[in-house]
Amino acid sequence: MNGKSKIIKDSIFSLLVTLLACTVAAITFIALSGEWTPYNIWYVFMVSYSYGVCVCLSIDIWNRFFPERSLLFRYSIPSVLGFILGTLLQMLILYYLYDDKSTDELLSWLNQGLLYSILANVVIIFYFYNQQQKITIQEELKVAQLQQAAKEKELLHSQLRLLQSQIEPHFLFNTLANLKALIILEPSRATVLLDNLTALLRQSLKQSEKETITLKDELKFCESYIAIQQIRLDDRISVNINVSANVNQQQPFLPLLLQPIVENAILHGIEPAPGRCALTIEVQKTEADVLEIMIEDDGVGLGNCSHKGNGVGLKNVRNRLQSFYGDDSQLSIMGNRMGGVSVLLNIPAEM
């Protein structure tokens, strides 16, 4: 429905409500007075409709010109104007229908309906004021919800920037130190390391500009990160990444959601272990349309690492999952019986 049609519909609805209220008020007034004479019935209905319609139209037109002003301004002034117009309309009706009556008689009739008209219009004005107040509260609530959504979105971006700032400093220093040594000792491996580092930084720059990327992009980012760590740890990491055929790798995915988990597995599980370790990433879609991502290592396991982190990376992952997916997401960390740690991430899957 366009704006013009909505205005017409609202105006007609307001007028119908006013006529109904005026009818009920007129019948009530006649019943209380006990005067069911044809003249009294006609007169009461004439007074009721004159004031009601004039006040209703005055409020409606006034609000078209001053929609942003306060409710008091938008209802008090047009109510007074409508009351004056209603009085003038009654005077014209009485004058043309009863031109044989004296002015004093016409004023006497007019005064009889004055108190009734005031009471009836107070009810009508209160109704429209109350309805408009509800609309205003709903609009303010909608604005507040939009502002809250904007704040939550900014929080997600802040958490992403925090994750990126945590990754880059220590990781870059270690990688550049390794690169310097490899340039002298093993130039071919230095070239591979530099290529992976360039790819990683390029992907990181792209991710920083987007709220979501694709699952494929995040897995590719993890592959570049793992490749660099493999060189740093002298190929002590055996990597296996399996993605089921029913998984849509183009589905939207939060950037840097898997990398902090992979980083934890390497720094706290694989690096402290004495020998070669395996790192496995399994991605599959369940029959319940849940995307299950398992990141598993066979390193030293929970509580056996001398390198103590502050857990900010995983905490931010949980917060971002909750902010983006709500209760539809889950992050579980489990120690393996044969050593190592498994991290299971569940989010809604998309076709």
Could you walk me through the main structural features you see in this protein, from its secondary elements to its overall organization?
This protein has nine helices and seven strands, in the order ααααααβαββαββαββ. The protein has 351 residues and is of the alpha+beta class. It has helices at residues 3-33, 38-65, 71-97, 103-112, 114-185, 187-208, 215-232, 259-270, 312-325; strands at residues 213-214, 237-243, 252-253, 277-285, 290-297, 330-335, 341-348. The strands form two sheets. It has a five-stranded mixed β-sheet with strand order 2-4-5-7-6, covered by helices on one side. Strands 1-3 form a two-stranded antiparallel sheet. Helix content is 67%, strand content 12%.
Strand content: 5-15%
Poorly predicted regions are none
Q: What is the radius of gyration computed over CA atoms, rounded to a whole number of angstroms?
A: 38 Å
Number of domains: 2
Strand arrangement within the widest β-sheet reads 2-4-5-7-6
Keywords:
alpha+beta; 2 domains; 5-stranded mixed β-sheet
Please give the structural blueprint.
Elements: H1 3-33, H2 38-65, H3 71-97, H4 103-112, H5 114-185, H6 187-208, E1 213-214, H7 215-232, E2 237-243, E3 252-253, H8 259-270, E4 277-285, E5 290-297, H9 312-325, E6 330-335, E7 341-348
Parallel strand pairs: 2-4
Antiparallel strand pairs: 1-3, 4-5, 5-7, 6-7
Helix pairs in contact: 1-2, 1-5, 2-3, 2-5, 3-5, 5-6, 5-9, 6-7, 7-8
Quick overview:
The protein is an alpha+beta fold and 351 residues long. It folds into 2 domains: 142 residues, no CATH class; 163 residues, Histidine kinase-like ATPase, C-terminal domain (Heat Shock Protein 90). It is built from 9 helices and 7 strands.
